[in-house]
Design brief:
With about 80 residues, the chain is mostly loops. Helices cover about 10% and strands about 10% of the residues. It has one helix and two strands, in the order βαβ. It has a two-stranded antiparallel ribbon with strand order 1-2. The longest helix has 9 residues. Bound molecules: FE2/S2 (inorganic) cluster. FE2/S2 (inorganic) cluster binds next to helix 1.
Amino acid sequence: KARGGCSRSSGLVNHQILKKSDKVVDSIDIEDISEKAVFCRCWRSKNWPYCDGSHNAHNKDQGDNVGPLIVSNKK
Ligand code: FES
């Protein structure tokens, strides 16, 4: 049934990550990032919340252009 203009059977962003949770929320302490951390934004990573390069296959398959968020710690 459509909710907010988006049906549950199509248009899902998250296909595989913590599907039993009502909401996927991740929290990382900035102090735990030593030099650089690369976070997934395509929701296809097998190493969530970090990028594992799965966005490349997704982009190729879907004609998309998504990529990770890179957080640097200059200290
Ligand atoms: Fe999702 Fe790289 S695997 S952004």
